[in-house]
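Hey team,

Filing this mostly as a record. A colleague (T.K.) asked me to run one chain through the structure pipeline before their review meeting, and I want the input and output archived in the tracker in case anyone asks later how it was produced. No errors, nothing strange. Just documentation.

Input sequence:
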Amino acid sequence: MRDAVAAAAAAVTELVGDQASGWDRAGRLPEDVVRKLGAAGQLAAQIPARYGGPGWSSTDSGEFTAHVGSLCSSLRSVMTSQGMAAWTVERLGDPEQAAALLPRLTSGDTAAVAFSEPQAGSDLSAVATTVTVAGDTLSLTGRKQWVTAAEYADLFLVVARMGEDGAVVVVPRNAPGVQVRPVADPLGCRAAGHAEVLLDDVRLPLSSLLGGGRQPLSLLVTTALAYGRISVAWGCVGILRACVTAAVGHARSREQFGQPLGRHQLVARHLADLWTAEQVATRACEYASRCWDENAPDLVTAVVLAKYVSAGHAAKGAAAAVQVLASAGAQDGHLVARAYRDAKLMEIIEGSNEMCQLMLADHALSRR
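Output structure:
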C-alpha cells in the first residue's frame, strides 16, 4: 500500500508542478486536474475497493492528504470535500445507495457537503433548510453557504431539517431550483470552489434521502465532520512541511552580517519552533488515524485533538515562515504567503478552534 501512496504522491506532484500559486491567484483549479484525480479515486482514497476506490487506510490516506496539502491547499480542500461526501454515503446510505453513488465518486464525478447556513454554523439547532415529503417525491428548500468545492461538484449532499429530525439529501447540481453562487475573494484556499448553494423547491425522488432520512441532526453533521476534521488536520501537516522546507532553504542560502541567516539565534528560534510544530502535528494526526483504522474508543477525541493541534500550529508556523523569509515571502503568490492565508482558514472550518477547545474541555472534565 505504501508503494501505491508513493506513486500517487509522485503523480500529483507532477500534475501540480509549479501551478498552485497561479491557481490561487486565479481562484480556480483546472477542471481536468480535478477530474483526473477523481477518476483515479484519489479525491477520496478511503472508498473501499468493492466500490472502485483505492481502499486506503486513514494513515495512508492521511499521508497522501498531507502531501497534496504541501503542494496546494485548495486542491486538498476539494479532496476533503469528496472524502466527506463519500464517508457520509458509506455511513448513512443504504446498500443500494452506496452501490450507486460511491462508484461515481471514484470515476470522475465530484461531490460537496452542504451544512453551513447564514444562521447555522456551530449551532446545529438553527439549521433552516427543510425537506418535506409528498407521496414519492420530496421538496427541498434552503440556503447553504461556504460550501467547499461547490463550483466543481456534480452532486450536493445537503443537510436539512425533516420535521423534528434531520436528513441528508443527495441533490444533482443540474436539478431545477439549484443555484450556485461563488464566494468572492475568500481569504484562503481561494481556488477551492467555495460557493453559496440556493435550493428553491428542489423536487427529487425519495431515493435521494440517504438512509431514508429522519436521523438526529447532530449525527448527520458529526458524521461528515469526523472525516473533514482529520483530513484538514493532515492538510495542515502538509502546510507545515512546505513552510519548513521554504524557511530552512531561505535561512541556509541567505547571509546577513557575514553568516547564514539560520545561524542568527532569533531566526534559529523560528526554525526550531516551526520544525517542532510540524512534528507535533504529525504525531497527533498519526494517532488520530491509528484510532480511525482501529475504530478505537478514543476516536472522536483524537480527531478533534488532531484538528485543533494541527490547525493552530499551521497558523503559527506559517506566520513564522513569513517572518523568516521577510520581504522575500511577503508577496501574493509566494508559497509561505499562501500558506499564511490558507492556514488561518483552517482554524475556522470543520469546527473552529474555539469549538474544538470546548469539546476537549468537556472530555477533560468527564474523565475520572
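Quick notes for T.K.: The chain is about 50% helix and 15% strand. Residues 217-253 form the longest helix (37 residues).
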